[in-house]
Amino acid sequence: MKISAETLVHKFIRSYQEPFSLEFFSSFVTKFGVKFTKEECKSYLEENPNIFTLANGLYATRACMFTNQYFSIKPERKELDKGVFIVGHRCMPFVDPDVLSCSIAFVYKRHALPQKVVEMDSSFLMDLFTLYGDEYSPQYIAQDPANKGMDFSALDYTLPPVVKITGFSTEPLVKDGFKPGDRLICKVLDWDNCVVGVEFVPRGEEQNCFQMTNEDIERERWYSLLEKYLLESFQIMGPGDSIEEQLSVVFAEKRSELCVKNCGSIEEFFLRTKKIGFELFGVETRLWFKGQDVPAIGSWNEKDYIPPEDEKNIKPVAEKFEQIPSYIIDAAIKDQLYDKVCDMELLLKKLYPNSYRISAVQRKMMLLHLKNRHDILSANYNRFADSEISGVRHRILELFTQVNALVYAIDLVGADLSVFPQQSLVVLSQIYGHINHVLEASELDPASVLHDMNEISISVDGMQMNFDCIEEDLRAVIARESKNGFVVLK
Question: Alpha-carbon distance 28 to 302, whole Å?
């Protein structure tokens, strides 16, 4: 059977276990018929969440960084009383972040531990999924196959007091003497297929809990090192795109010190640290200095947002026309097709709030581009087939117009972003990113949007509410900075 080049590249990204250069990867994809330029290969690697950029022009897959690296889990009595341990966030960041934790395979003495469905208090489970963020933890729990019949949307996206969860049976471990207080030592055997090897370290209840062993001392050092390296990461990379990303960078870079057999567990660390907390970052949660607001701009990204003095008054408005993704343009055109409208001037105004600032020639070119794209899409447009998705697409496009206008207004005023309310900027960025994600899915994977229609509709309501909350504060700064930019001529 012939394997596609795309499949081979995908397999490489998920399983290659040596650092490699751009030249090596470019040669690899070319060998299998993928027509990527060297620059395209570079962009692909640096934008792929499963690739780490190393020093000296090298790259490494997550499989390379985390295979055979140790981490630990210390099950609690509530789990063990039911004969299971529940994974939750405990394998983060060592396994594929896109795989449900109940889908991981745990191997003990060459045999897979059986899965076992149990009922647990939802409050207890939320603690085991904390690293996904409180805003997402209920969704991860609800997606467990054991909760297949649960109508999560009917519950207003909150968990009932008791829910089912898929755990892994501790019976094979108990037969070999595993007891409450013992620690599971884990390491990834196969990153691609999410296979984790497990053994246990005895620390039974009969031992003196006040007596420190050499292993305990090593674990205390481990907690101190993890705290130190996380604090350093805040200064270097700021708040990551997620808690998982923050942890993955730290553990990958410091795995020789952190991925040791006498390591502590991630949940024990967060119970101990006094310096690191779960802090709000817009509408999401990030790891940050405990009790401090997470800023949108800091030493890690200020060069991207605060231009040099001699560039502050340069506003490359025409370049903004190239930044709207094609899938958003297509979605906006289909929105007009569904409404039986063909108004390219209106479309231009909605997509490009600053279109009035461009030359007549540029405007004519943009209108011609939109009309050509309209004609191409209208040739095969099926209004009946589009009816299911048209409503939610229209609502999110209306929100996009509002959000995009505010983004353009912030850009146009030319002020340092540090003068804006930081949390409001973060929320704006998160809304903008989520809108882009949904519109991209509506064009490239409409089946997924149809499947999640109710959830997306509720999400749009939430985004609109969050946008309404931040718009006034941001526009107040825009008005102030615009006024400060005027010069009185005498």
Answer: 36
Place of tokens 């013992």: 182
Question: Hey, what are 362's tokens?
Answer: 């540029």
- Please spell the DSSP secondary structure of 94-132, one letter per residue: TS-TTS-GGG-EEEETTEEPPEEEEEEEHHHHHHHTGGG
* Residues written for the chain: 490
pTM of the model: 0.79
Q: Return contacts of 215-221, CB within 8 angstroms, 24+ apart.
A: 215/262, 218/260, 218/262, 219/262, 219/263, 219/264
Q: Which helix (H) or strand (E) holds 277?
A: strand 276-281
Residue 14: count of CB within 10 angstroms of its CB: 16
User: Beta partners for 200?
Assistant: 184
Q: Tens digit of pLDDT for each residue in 278-315?
A: 999 988 999 999 999 998 888 888 776 655 454 444 44
Sign of CA dihedral 400, 401, 406, 411: positive
Distance, in Å, from the CA atom of 286 to the CA atom of 273, rounded to the nearest integer, reads: 15
State how far the Cα of 368 lies from the Cα of 144, in Å rounded to an integer. Answer: 49
Residue 93 CA: distances (Å) to CA of 41, 249, 273, 278, 311: 25, 9, 19, 17, 40
Task: Please report, for residues 77, 173, 324, 461, the alpha-carbon distance to residue 319 in angstroms, rounded to integers and kept in the order given.
Answer: 60, 62, 10, 32
